[in-house]
Amino acid sequence: MGGYLIYFIIIMIVPIWAQMRVKGSYVKYSKVPSSSHMRGAEVARRILDANGLYHVGIEEIRGHLTDHYDPRSKTVRLSSSNYHGHSVAAAAIAAHEVGHAIQDQQDYAFLRFRHALVPVANLGSNFSWILILIGMFAGLSGFVLLGIIFMASAVIFQLVTLPVEFNASNRAMDQVIALGVIRNDEEKETRKVLNSAALTYVAAAAVAVLELLRLILVYTGMQRQD
User: Fold this and answer.
1) Which of 97, 39, 46 is nearest to 67 (CA)?
2) Which member of 44, 89, 138, 188 lies 3.0 to 4.6 Å from 94 by CB, making a disulfide possible if both were Cys?
3) First CA to last CA across the chain, in angstroms?
4) Distances (CA, A) of 132 to 53, 110, 138
């Protein structure tokens, strides 16, 4: 019982802690103007053009920290605060999303793999728990196993996301330094924004792996009873 309590505390606290780190870092550095005083949209455009990605568009999108790169429409979408913001945080996040566009251009293997996993991962996320719950309540270990297999696809997606995100952040740092978007004394702050954002993906992957391991233990227990 104590082990389960610790487990549930971990899977609840770790994601919350990661989100708090992201929000805290973003709020702090969104108040720090960058030396270049470029808007996030301008930072994105400069990096895109410097890498020959003239065809990639930049759009403003509603929401808070809803920034992303859409590989289908070849568009970098920045939330309003980052699209118009002149801060270190806005520059870091804009550069990170452009990092994904550069990955797309260079056919980065992990990005391609993640894109290929999207339909399978979505299917796994939607149906895994239905199968697992049916199997557990009905005592049908085969359903639990099938649910675990579906869930494993979603977990693999989470794990593959890690190198994609870290690589995009590394590319972002290289670009903002090389193009003079930030000064040397701003590198530490920019890296903090990027690292705190990466924590959310690390936390999500850790929780997903823990949950998968727990369900595998449940399945093996059912097999022993059979």
Assistant:
1) 97
2) 44
3) 23
4) 45, 29, 10
Helix ranges restricted to H, the chain: 2-29, 40-50, 80-84, 88-105, 109-138, 141-178, 187-225
User: What letter does residue 186 receive in the DSSP assignment?
Assistant: G
Asked if 169 and 99 count as a contact pair (C-beta separation under 8 A), the reply is yes
Q: At what angle do helices 187-225 and 2-29 cross, to 10 degrees?
A: 160
Strand duo 57-61 + 75-79: pairing: parallel
Low-confidence stretches of the chain (pLDDT < 50) are none
What six digits make up the tokens of 164?
């994609």
Q: Could you list the residue range(s) of the whole structural domain that residue 166 is in?
A: 2-225
**Of residues 97, 165, 186, 189, which has the active-site annotation?**
97
Q: What pLDDT is stored for residue 169 in this prediction?
A: 95
* Phi, psi at 52, each rounded to 5°: 75, 15
As for how many domains the chain has, the answer is 1
Helix/strand/coil for 64 = coil
Model confidence, pTM: 0.87
Distance in angstroms (rounded) separating the CA atoms of residues 160 and 181: 29
Bridge pairing between strands 68-70 and 57-61: unpaired
Pairing of strands 75-79, 68-70: antiparallel
Distance CA 99, CA 102 (A): 5
Tens digit of each residue's pLDDT (9 = 90 or more) over 117-137: 998 888 888 888 888 888 888
Active site (annotated) includes residue 97: yes
What pLDDT score does 18 carry?
79
